[in-house]
Design brief:
Helix content is about 15%, strand content about 35%. The chain contains 8 helices and 24 strands. The strands form 6 sheets. The protein has a 9-stranded mixed sheet with strand order 9-8-10-11-24-19-18-15-16. A 4-stranded antiparallel sheet has the order 3-2-5-6, with no helix packed on it. The protein binds zinc ion. The site of zinc ion (ZN) has 6 residues, from loops.
Length: about 375
């Protein structure tokens, strides 16, 4: 055995990245660690020359592979050119009036994303050239049933969707529906109109109002002591709560969330409940194996109580299946992410919220 030490960076080497997987897979025998908040890792693995795989999330969007040699009893520093996390798939975003997630993807993380228009949602095959589509709050137009059908098909085939605040309208409807002439039914239901906070579903959308229903009734101000439910995010931030400043007037409060959603951040103080959640909206039969890589639930031989969701080369797949692994994540991890808060370019967000948004981007 020997040891690898290194630090994972973004593609241009200007930033370190936490919560990134660093892995060597020796024909089904997996040596795996995760970078700490400062991007550092230490990995013990058998001697020899191996593929070192560095990835985040499913590895479909951000992944780097390099060759590394481990020497008996020695600690080898992995050079920076081997530890830059590369973008291996295309990202896209639709701009919004109140949010600018692309500023974090492009300006902060140094990755690339293509700007789309609402009209591009009419073209499913074009949408599918992107592995994730980011939908900003304050969308620049209305959707119709064809666009919702394409968003549904896109996500069901494994595309990831990120939507913040008012962009929930891409998921659950914006009140607009294709009729001749088109009819627009206002979405907003104020707390005065709807004092009991019962949820009024919107026309349109591809996610049922029984799965997710929101109302624009959030108050301006700080929501402090938000519980971080997601364990990897807890580890990355090294804390269990954060404060979120909702400094715009009004935001989409989740009124109804089915158990199909996995809650990532939750308010227990102000009565708002879930503030960010992830939905598994994938056809597993077609999703998990593509481009030579496959996401599996690895059940370590000799340590079966510690299953790990990892992404491996298809060349190693049979060895994993032979010791009882299965294709797909150990727990459904979700490809549609909705946050009630965002990175609007007019104001300041806290460092913690910035880290949370970076984590969401890297783990779609
Ligand atoms: Zn395995």
């Amino acid at each position: 055995m020997g040891t690898l030490e290194g630090r994972v960076f973004n593609a241009d080497g200007s930033r370190t990245l936490g919560a990134i997987k660093v892995q060597i897979d020796l024909n089904g025998d997996v040596f795996l660690t995760t970078t700490d908040a400062n991007g550092n890792f230490t990995l013990d693995a058998p001697v020899g020359t191996h593929d070192l795989v560095i990835y985040s999330g499913s590895g479909r969007i951000f992944r780097s592979v390099s060759t590394i040699t481990i020497e008996e009893g020695k600690t080898t520093d992995v050079p920076m050119e081997n530890t830059k996390l590369n973008q291996v798939a295309n990202l896209a975003y639709i701009p919004g009036a109140y949010d600018k997630i692309e500023s974090i993807i492009i300006d902060s993380l140094g990755y690339s994303a293509t700007q789309l228009s609402i009209a591009d949602l009419d073209n499913l095959s074009y949408m599918q050239t992107f592995n994730a589509i980011f939908l900003n709050c304050g969308k620049p137009g209305y959707l119709d049933s064809a666009k919702y059908a394409n968003l549904s098909a896109y996500a069901y085939a494994g595309g990831s969707i990120y939507a913040s605040d008012y962009a929930v309208e891409y998921l659950t409807g914006d009140g607009y529906y294709m009729q001749t002439p088109p009819v627009y039914t206002a979405h907003s239901h104020s707390s005065i109109e709807n004092p009991d906070k019962s949820c009024v579903g919107d026309v349109g959308g591809f996610i049922s109002d029984n799965d997710l229903c929101t109302e624009k009734i959030g108050s301006t101000g700080m929501v402090s002591n938000v519980s971080i439910i997601d364990i990897a995010l807890q580890n990355l931030l090294n804390k269990t709560t954060i404060d979120i400043d909702y400094d715009l007037g009004g935001w989409e409060v989740i009124q109804l969330l089915s158990s199909n959603w996995q809650i990532l951040l939750q308010d227990n103080t102000y009565g708002y409940g879930p503030l960010a959640a992830r939905l598994y909206y994938i056809n597993p039969a077609t999703y998990y194996q593509s481009g030579g890589w496959v996401t599996i639930c690895h059940i370590p031989p000799g340590n079966p109580n510690n299953p790990q969701t990892i992404t491996v080369s298809v060349n190693a797949l049979q060895a994993h299946l032979d010791h009882g692994d299965f294709i797909g994540p150990c727990q459904q991890d979700g490809n549609i992410l909705f946050t009630t808060f965002h990175n609007h370019h007019q104001g300041n967000i806290s460092h913690d919220v910035y880290d949370v948004l970076e984590y969401f981007i890297l783990n779609l």
